[in-house]
Amino acid sequence: MSHLVPAVFPSDRQAVASSTTGSLQVACATIALFLLPFPALNFGISFTVADVFLVTAVLLNATQLVRLQAFQIPFLLALPLFVVSTLLDPDGGLIELVQVLYIWGFVVPFGWVAFVGLGIRRIVLIVLISAATNAVVAVGQGAGYLPELGNQHIIDFGGGFSRAAGLSLKCNSLVMSLTPCLMLIPFLLRLRTRLSMLLILIPGLLAAVSKSIVFALPGVLWYVWHEPRRRGVVAFLCVLGLAWMIQGEGVSGVGDMWYHFSDLATRRLDRIEDSIDERIELIRISLDHASDTLLVGYGPAGTHVRISAMTNNTVHVYYLGVVLSGGIPAAFLAFTGMGLIVGGLWKHGQRHVCLYVVSHLLALSVMTALLVSFQVLPFVVGGAILAQISSAKATSRSPDLTSPDFPWISPR
Question: What phi and psi values does residue 255 have, to the nearest 5 degrees?
């Protein structure tokens, strides 16, 4: 009796291998997107655990690298100027050069390749879940239940509530990471989920006790404006805030936490005038040095050395930091690439994602320019979504905008 053995053709093996590679790529991209806002999970250097998965996800999706997007061109043109500025920097070294090549030569222009296959809704959900995790950890640190992680810096004022950093490196980095995520809350389909996300992110922002939280206010207003049941939500938030403040009259449980937090916030507000004066002085000194960067910049290390020598601090405006480290031409090209991402998202109707990137741009105005991947994450996310939409429109003039990959908010 003969037995028939099914033949396995090379095309079948290729299909199985392709499916396995695709699944692995999606897994690496998902993990990278979730971990990128957590720079505290690192190897003692600026290269984090998330970067390992990001590089892997890009390489596994290498066929997408040949799809040159319009926003990539300015970034690639700026790269040689950033590299030359770093090479000419007498205070810099190999580490700074590698960081510049990785951020400006890989993450910013090509990081979107890792996430272009995830789908818009999945990208947004992962970003929001990651932000919620960061916020919960921050609240735990602020209340004293969770310790510092790795080489991050939590500011303890000794009053029962600390300035938390969550899974970021510093308090201001936490605010920068959470602020733009508020713009994405309208993507969530259920009222309960949207409201829960808002009530998680706001305490996380407050836990940083940072003045830059003011940049989160547009995100809250954007969500409320696009909330179909906004009257009920506003009433609920008012009642909840009032109840918390009333509870704050006591000295136990949540009330005790509110008491210590409000005391710390008051002390921070008392220093706001001195803080503003310090920032203005930093900006003035940075602008004085900007006239020397008409072609190339001082490099990352050189910028820090020059500014800190005069102020005992560093540039706290991202855009001035980019100008000083790479030069005016490089900064202009980099900012042009960011603008193309914003303009492309708005043009294609992705208003929430567009304002997610814009909100990040606002938050960067009070941040130091760092050569770390988490600081450019919204540009990578915006680039991936823009590439998806551009590809869909190129394939069909009338794509199905109601599919799961194009989650539009239902009209009120």
Answer: -65, -40
Q: How far apart are CA 185 and CA 235, in angstroms?
A: 18
- Could you give the residue ranges of the DSSP H alpha helices within 208-327? 217-225, 230-247, 253-270, 272-290, 300-311, 318-326
Residue 15: what pLDDT? 56
Q: How far is CA 87 from CA 222, 290, 293, 305, 325, in A?
A: 44, 19, 15, 16, 11
The pLDDT-based confidence of 11 (bands split at 50, 70, 90) is low
How many Å apart are CA 333 and CA 163, to the nearest integer? 36
CB within 8 Å of 10: residues ≥ 6 apart: none
For the chain, the structural domain boundaries read: 23-395
Residue 42's DSSP bridge partners are: 48
Single-letter amino acid, residue 43: F
Is pLDDT above 80 for 14? no
Residue 368's H or E segment, with its range, is none
Residue 369 vs residue 36, higher pLDDT: 36
Q: List the single range of 97-111, 147-161, 239-253, 352-366 with lowest mean pLDDT.
A: 239-253
